[in-house]
Structure formats: C-alpha cells, structure tokens
Amino acid sequence: MESCARNLLAQADIQINGSREWDMQVHDNDVFKRVFAEGNLGLGETYMEGLWDVPALDVFFDRLLSAHLDEKVRPGKLMIHALRARMTNLQSVRRAWQVGESHYDLGNDFYAAMLDRRMTYTCGYWKEAATLDEAQEAKLDLVCRKLNLKSGMRVLDIGCGWGSFMAYAAEHYGVECVGLTISKEQADYGRTLMAAALPIEFRLQDYREIHERFDAVVSIGMFEHVGRKNHREFMEVAHRCLKDDGLFLLHTIGKNVRESTPDPWIDRYIFPNGDLPAIGQIGDAAEELFVTEDLHNFGADYDKTLMAWHNNFEASWPLFKDRFDTRFYRM
After folding, report:
1. Which end of the chain is more exposed for a tag (fewer CB within 10 A), N or C?
2. Domain of 8, in residue numbers
3. Spatial distance between the Cα atoms of 41 and 56, rounded to a whole number of angstroms
C-alpha cells in the first residue's frame, strides 16, 4: 500500500517523509489504507486525527491537484456519495438550515477574530488593496457600483451573512436593505449591532419564502448552498423580487465542470450539502428570466483572502483552544 502511494505521490513530486515543505510526514501507515478506501475523505480525516502532517498544506494540495492525483484515486465507497448528490435534493427547505447550524453558528466571536472588521465571509477584491479590510471594502464597493445603487433604493440581500454588504451600502449609498440568513447567530449579531443604527433588516428566513419587490437584488457567496436542483427556483425568486429594469448581482464560487460531485470531506465537515455551480448551470437557470450584462472573475483573489483568514485564525487560536479541540483546529 505504501509503495503504491509513494509511486502515486512521485507524480506530483511529493515524497513520503521527505525534507521539503510540501513533503508528507506520515506517522501511521493506516493513512494509505484509508486514502485508497475513502479518497479525499480519508485523507482529510487522517490529517484531522494527526496521522500525517505537511508544513505547507497549500503547496501540498496544489501539487496533488495539478498532477490530477484526485482523478486517479476513485474508491468505490464514494459511489454512494456521488449518487446521493445526483439523485437527492440535498438543499431542500428542510435541509437548508443544516449548514447554518453546523458552520455559521460556531460563534460570532470566533468569526470576528478570523475575518475583516466588517465580518465579510466571501472573497475580497485585491486589485488595489494591501490589507484584508481594504480588499473586502473594495469588493463591497464594487458590488454597489455594479448595481448602480442610488439613495432611497430598497435592496434585497439573499444570504446576507453578518450584514457587511447591507451596512456598507446603507452607509455609503443611502439605501435600505432587507437581508435573509439561515444562521441564528448571524441574525442576532446583525439585529443587535446594526439594525438599530441603520435602515437594514435581518430576517431568519429561507430565500424561497420571500414575496416582495425590490429595486435591486444581490446574493454574495450564498449560491454555493443552493444546489443544482434548486438553481432555477433561486433565479425565479430573484426575478419575482426584482422591479422592472432592476439589477440582480450574483457572486459565487464556481467550477469549470457541470456534473462533478461535491467533495466528500468538505461536504461532511465544512459546507454540508454544498454544490459549486458551473457558469453554464448559472446561465441555464437564468434563461428567459435575466439578461447577463457582466461576468467578472476574480477567483484568484481567494488565495490572498484565505491566507489572510488563516493568519488571523492562527493568531487568535489561543483564545479559542479551550472551546474547540485539536481535531477542530486541524480541520
């Protein structure tokens, strides 16, 4: 088993127990058995359990994926995961709340320590930014300008998070905002710290339940939770909520293949029931409802954003290590 793994990793110039920052330091040979049986799920879980390490995880995965090793380890056990993702509506109204409870409700103080000062939990725009705060404000301003916001307009934010866009748009463009979230922690945070001082409203509500009209509609980093079986319904909701000649802006993490299966480790531990859309799927869902005016990809900026979050997380970990265990830290 180890010799097979060694030969496979050599294709990505990764050595077992080598001396370079991207080399895999293996503490238990069960790692290989579980990786060949469970793919990325086994790789991630054995890392969480401390069975292997690598000094530079990002470089390790960059090499692994660039060599397409993920395509060469296809365990039969994951067929059930793939069929489940294909056949089941994993993002139904009932199931949609799971990601809020397991991910976004970890604690507002935890996310405040990791994110920028506005608590924007999506990709920053680093074109002219030097810090995380600058990158996130640049992204929020870019969204406002693309929507051509004017004072007095009423805006719907589908998946509003902790309200960073709504607060920024209200402060700088004079608009009123209604935000939808499926996280109780996010809604409580926004209502306590923002709603009293700004013309913004937080609603603990699934997007499918809203029937109002707005001058503009925005959704920033939420479409990844919608799922391919619900893409069309999401677009229909945005369409019915948008006044004639209004603008709808969708910001999402995407992928370049339509029918791929959600990553099993990320599905279990990070974003339950998540499903990244391809551009073609977004276009299909919007057909006859919207005219696409602008397509802007700055996905490479997520590297700087993630590394800034990582640095904040590492610096703040001593404040949280009594609440979360080592397994959580490694996850």
Report:
1. N
2. 2-75
3. 19
Cα–Cα distance between 179 and 190 in angstroms, integer? 10
**Rounded alpha-carbon distances, angstroms, from residue 254 to 135, 262, 282, 329:** 20, 12, 10, 26
Residue 262 domain-assigned (yes or no): yes
Instruction: Mark 6-17 as b/e (b = at least 16 C-beta within 10 Å).
Output: eebbeebebebe
Strand locations in the chain (E)? 25-26, 52-53, 154-158, 176-181, 200-204, 214-220, 242-251
Tell me which residue has tokens 């995961």. Answer: 81
What is the tens place of the pLDDT at every residue in 86-138? 555 655 555 544 544 555 668 889 999 999 999 999 999 999 999 999 999 99
* 70 in any annotated domain: yes
Q: Indicate if 258 and 202 belong to the same structural domain.
A: yes
Query: Which tokens sit at 89?
Result: 């509506």
Sequence-separated (6 or more) residues with CB below 8 Å from residue 126: 135, 138, 298, 301, 304, 305
